[in-house]
Amino acid sequence: MVNQIPVPQAKYELLTDVRQPRWRTQVLCLALVSLILGVLFVTRAWLGIVILRSPGAKALDTETLTDDAKIATWLRRARMYAESTKENQNADRNNSISSPQHNNTNSSGQIIVCYYTISSDLNTFWELSPSHIDPDLCTHIIVGFAGVVNCSLDLGSNSSIYEEVIALKKLQPQLRVMISAGGSNELHLGFSEMVKNHANRKRFIRSVLNVTKTFGFDGLDLDWEFPAWLGADEREKLHFVQLLEELRREFYRATKTLILSVAVAAPQAIVDQSYMVAEMAKYVDFVNLMSYDYHFYVWYYPITGLNAPLFSHAAESGYLSTLNVNYSVHYWLSKGMPREKLIVGIPTYGHNYRLDNPQNHDLLAPANGFGELGKMGFVSYPTVCEFLQNGAKSVFEHESKVPYAYKDREWISYDDVKSVCNKAEWIRANNFGGAMILSLNVDDWNNTCKFNESFPLTRTVSKILRYQVD
């Protein structure tokens, strides 16, 4: 009996001596793995920031891109939309904001707002001469982009082009031509300085009245992307409403009552940060909802996505399920913008990606950069048509109601006649204010897609909303 007592005690001590070092080793290994992963994550994030903030990247944004007004404007907005997704993709959002579709149709007051963008060079394929614009396509043409310099509206050296667009009113007297301030020119932060105080805003309004009277514009569109966003002064949101109120007051006093519109963001995060929607609604005639650029290649979210889906699809959840036209429109309604003042944006360009693996070409496929076609991820509709004519396969995503196409490593999300038809019918059925086209320049104005049919996307929207063609 005496000899039996130490035996189990010895076994217990032996097991304890063996297990304790293994436990400590496991903890140490886990700590080392966590440290390595943390270092890799921080290094990747740091490299991304260095690239974005490097002199080369800065020069690309502020110098190279300003030579092409469209790319500068669109690339900047697409990056900010992507940033809003990055900050909010894990948030628990209520995505049940949408309401049932209205079945009654009364679109007599619906409008077609078309952006026409000016660049410094009219010799590139993307550039559309004012003389080639069909004046019967749109109810409103907004010409952009004028700058805000020294708290004044600055047309730069493009006066003759503005005059040519305004001359289209001689061919179609009911056409309204407006001027847009902002866009790519916001690289110079003209709005932020101008809205700071009443004196600056008064100076800007005086210049607007002078320009509209001199050239014969029918109104002003403000394309500030975006007030109080990404570290800007939070008071800009209030100052922007003050600007709209003061513009409206002076526009009513003008000899000819002028139209006032605002180009506004679609993602919920930017809407919440940048706009006092109900207050804005008191002063604007309508808002042009930039319901596109929902998905765009960025290094921290390197998978294919749809540029302007009408609805979400089953694979999306949380904040990602809010990145579609239907959600954005109903979110603006819920914030206080009247239905008849909501003009829903429809893009005539697509976004492209370079696939990691050409055999994996579905939605949400891994990508490692922009595609080869187009410019900096943006592809005009004629280029998409050529892509399809050269053997690319098109897939229509039935949940989201938009197509994408692929061939080899090239993958493009875009809108075609079928998808814009769906959107226009949805706009008409829900009695929204109308549709906005971005832009005439990148629709197929040169009959590339189909012989003897110019502006097929814009023309489809016009037929449905203005002429009730199904």
UniProtKB/TrEMBL annotation:
One GO BP annotation is:
carbohydrate metabolic process
Q: What region holds the GH18 domain?
A: 110-468
TM region(s), chain numbering: 27-47
GO MF term set: chitin binding; chitinase activity
| Stored PANTHER family | CHITINASE (PTHR11177), CHITINASE 11 (PTHR11177:SF390)
Q: Which InterPro entries match?
A: Chitinase_II/V-like_cat (IPR011583), Chitinase_insertion_sf (IPR029070), GH (IPR017853), Glyco_hydro18_cat (IPR001223), Glyco_hydro_18_chit_AS (IPR001579), Glycosyl_Hydrlase_18 (IPR050314)
One Pfam family assigned to this protein is Glyco_hydro_18
- GO CC annotations on file: extracellular region
Per the record, which residues fall in region Disordered?
84-104
The name under which this protein is listed is: Chitinase-3-like protein 2
Q: Which UniProt keywords apply?
A: Glycoprotein, Glycosidase, Hydrolase, Membrane, Signal, Transmembrane, Transmembrane helix
- In this chain, composition skew of type Polar residues spans 91-104
Family named by the database record:
Belongs to the glycosyl hydrolase 18 family.
